[in-house]
Amino acid sequence: MPLVIFIDMDYFFAACEELRRPELKGKPFIVGTSPEESKMKGVVQTCNYEARAFGVRSGMATSEAYRKKKELVYVEADDPYYEELSRRVLQLLRSYQLPIEGYSIDEFAIDATQLGYERAFDTAKAMKARVNTEIGLPCTMGVSMGKTFAKMACDEAKPNGAKLLREEEIPGFLRGKGVRKLPGIGPKTEERLKALGITTLDELARADVNRLIAELGSNGSWLHNLALGKDSAKVMDAQEVLSISRERTLDEQTRDPKRLDLEIERIADMVIEEVRKSQYSFKTVTSKARYADFTERIRSRTLQNYSSSGEVLKATAKQLARELIGDRPIRKVGVRVSTLISAKGQQRLV
Ligand code: TTP
Ligand code: MG
Which of 14, 104, 143, 302 sits 20 to 30 Å CA-CA off 150? Predict the structure, then answer.
């Protein structure tokens, strides 16, 4: 599992508003989705902790928020401004020269494997201090093995905190928690698990994985592993994940379609292993050939749907490779997948 520093900005949109309107500080206020005049029809996107003290929450109807606290200040959301601040946070974090994955507008996962626990935790605290002083925004840091547990550590340390969760502490950390505490389990999955008699992470860990797969598909085994304290998903730096590719120089040059098929299958196996590890689905497949005279040609196809299937990849890549057979013998072949999407369905990366 990679060692991960996970950052989640505190009450992000509301903190951005406090930054440019300091007079809001200390007063309960919400950031909403509809213009001031029709605000009651909108939804609370977020609110500061003063508003949370009255039970106001993200996702709540604005009218309900006002029932909880009459004197709430209403601020209309300004997405471009929040996106700009998000970019500035990302830029600051990038200066540490570690792989970094943007999770959402206010969450980032950093691969700190090379640092080890102590230095990773010190680095996390230094990052937190710099985000605070240089950008003026509060945030919370979680450090653990695997993105999921780093995020959960972060959730527990909120607000304005930092928590280190060592690998050996993960089982104890998960014990007794409800399934909703696991990132990736929303209300729908919670219901389906409940139908199987599973409400806690202990029960999820003990559940029969085949039964989970029957009920939830491949997500079932993924969630089962998480409940067991295992999350091998890599931190995918945006630059790395635009595509996943492998290539190989042939032992001898060839124009034989059958030989080529075998090579493509081997390379496709390597690509699919990487796709699975990083939990992406792909929509574009490309085969590449380098000929004896060192010229190169590629053929690409975009699939109808996203896929993570090895069979689909092999069939498509073989077909494309055959289209690359010409007069000249081939000495090197490659397979690439692109137009990737996180299999968890949250993030589209070109
Ligand atoms: P979160 O990180 O979930 O919430 P937060 O940053 O406001 O508060 P916390 O301190 O608990 O992390 O979401 C980040 C931003 O995304 C949030 O500021 C506003 C926006 N958002 C919505 O627009 N709608 C929603 O339902 C949620 C949950 C968030
Ligand atoms: Mg946040």
Answer: 14
